Amino acid sequence: MPDNLQPEWLKTLVKAPLTSRLRRKESLKRFNTWRIGGVAECLIDVVNIADLSFLLPFISKHRIPWFILGKGSNLLIPDTSWPGIILHLSGEFKSWKPLENTSLTHKINHISAGAALADVTFAQRCANQGWTGMEFLIGIPGTIGGAVAMNAGAHGRVTAESLLQVDWMDMEGNLHTSSRNELVFRYRFSELNGNFGKIITSAVFQLQQTDQESVEKKLLECQQFRMEKQPYNQPSCGSVFKNPPGDFAARLIEDSGLKAKKCGNAQISPIHANFIVNLGGASSADILTLIETIRETVFSKYSIYLEPEVQILQSSEYN
Ligand SMILES: Cc1cc2nc3c(=O)[nH]c(=O)nc-3n(C[C@H](O)[C@H](O)[C@H](O)COP(=O)(O)OP(=O)(O)OC[C@H]3O[C@@H](n4cnc5c(N)ncnc54)[C@H](O)[C@@H]3O)c2cc1C
């Protein structure tokens, strides 16, 4: 690309002393589980704290559109180009470290996990040690950062329940440690989210000691449940809508007669009505049309306006 077409901030950024890899004009299709989306002007695989603490103030100073991405498993990325920076944690953010066991009975274990560590890896490693509490993560195809940011949950448990503390960075590049009790978590909500200018860098969990066999049995049950009830082999973002109080979004969508409805190459899953699947080559516009159809149809039938659980890629406002 000719130099004069590059944004001014990018000309400065490419000269910055970063260890992290900076990619130009990167397709975002590979960075989300729907396999949808346009091209990002700049995507950075941020490998360490030093680079992150340089990048966040840089983004603020130059007022660059930005977004922090985990595995994009709860994200709808528009088909249009993204004019700014996508931060993608990697390198030292994939750490997994059991901390010294300080409990007298050795029944409680503390584990520090980097924000970019895959949930599945975390669940599997904890199971190998016989540590129970976070088995549900085996079926969630995101990262630890995404799990804390979304307060991800399944099978009656949520991420915040086993959290002890979280390390996060503000837009000035300062690192903070907050204990679980200082933080607000609700159903699929956390005050720690890139959307609020707070980047999770790692989290400490406390898990109960039990035996490896029973933890692995739970992992298997969680996996089997998904294989039976969800379209696990088709690209999706999991549940598109939050469950309204006292009801299930999937039931409302199914009872509105919308199961299997298509728009372009996107379809409301015939297996689970709260999933929208990409049949191959779906656009974000196809998905958005189905989302709107569901909201309007369910509202006209039940007077319930379903709230999306899926996040839509748009510039984080806190810069
Ligand atoms: C097949 C399938 C099944 C699923 N099942 C479940 C389920 O059972 N329960 C459930 O809760 N979810 C489920 N999900 C949704 C999704 O996996 C979770 O919400 C997951 O926690 C998102 O993690 P992620 O790393 O992919 O985050 P992303 O989708 O990349 O991001 C989600 C949000 O988190 C923010 N974020 C990500 N990383 C950070 C960070 N380090 N610091 C600050 N903010 C950050 C992003 O900015 C964005 O706002 C499912 C998805 C799929 C595809």
3D architecture notes:
The protein has seven helices and 19 strands. The protein is α+β, with helices and mostly antiparallel strands and 319 residues long. The protein has three domains: 3-92, Uridine Diphospho-n-acetylenolpyruvylglucosamine Reductase, domain 2 (2-Layer Sandwich), CATH 3.30.43; 95-229, Uridine Diphospho-n-acetylenolpyruvylglucosamine Reductase, domain 3 (2-Layer Sandwich), CATH 3.30.465; 249-312, UDP-N-acetylenolpyruvoylglucosamine reductase, C-terminal domain (Uridine Diphospho-n-acetylenolpyruvylglucosamine Reductase, domain 1), CATH 3.90.78.10. Strands 6, 7, 8, 11, 12 and 15 form a six-stranded antiparallel sheet that branches. Helix 3 (119-129) packs antiparallel against helix 5 (212-229). The protein starts with 7 loop residues before the first helix and ends in a 7-residue tail after the last strand. The mean pLDDT is 95. Flavin-adenine dinucleotide binds at residues 33, 68-75, 89, 115, 139-143, 145-147, 149-150, 152-154, 193-195, 199-200, 236-238, 311.
